[in-house]
Amino acid sequence: MGSVSRSSLDQKLAMAKRCSHEGVVAGAKAAVVATVASAIPTLASVRMIPWARSFLNPAAQALIVSSAAGAAYFIVADKTVLAAARKNSFKDAYQADIKA
């Protein structure tokens, strides 16, 4: 394996790690926001609405909040990684045009 292809692979690996790290950070931020945004109305409705008080036990409340947080994490992380990959693929295509 030549030094050019080795350095190219190392560069691509570093870029992939950076993209995935950006996705994790963005997903974690979205999960925190979704947790707060879903916990407040869930807990408030259990305190104020008789139907919710009788049917939403603590396990159901935790499931509502954690489902919102998990969905937000995976959606935002996926979109962030895909956006970074798309941006980097266009950058690679542009650099290939310059070299040609």
Hey, roughly how much beta strand do the residues contain? under 5%
User: Could you spell the SSE succession in H and E letters?
Assistant: HHH
Principal-axes shape call: rod-shaped
The share of residues in helices is over 70%
Q: What's the rounded overall pLDDT mean? A: 88
Cα(first) to Cα(last) distance is 23 Å
* Sheet of most strands: none
Give the domain tally. Answer: 2
Radius of gyration: 22 Å
The oligomerization state is: single chain
Total beta strand runs: 0
- In DSSP terms (H or I, runs of 4 or more residues), the helix count works out at 3
Low-confidence stretches: none
- Decide which structural class fits the backbone: mainly alpha
Organism: Elaeis guineensis var. tenera (Oil palm)
Keywords: Membrane, Transmembrane, Transmembrane helix
Protein name: Early nodulin-93
Pfam family, one: ENOD93
What is this structure, in a nutshell?
The protein has 100 residues and is mainly alpha-helical. The chain is 94% helix and 0% strand.
Write the layout of secondary structure elements.
Elements: H1 3-48, H2 50-55, H3 58-99
Helix pairs in contact: 1-3
Protein model, in words:
There is one protein chain. Helix 1 (3-48) runs antiparallel to helix 3. The protein has two domains: 1-48; 57-99. It has helices spanning 3-48, 50-55, 58-99. The radius of gyration is 22 Å and the shape is rod-shaped. It contains three helices and no strands. It has 100 residues and is an all-alpha fold. The mean pLDDT is 88. Helix content is 94%, strand content 0%.
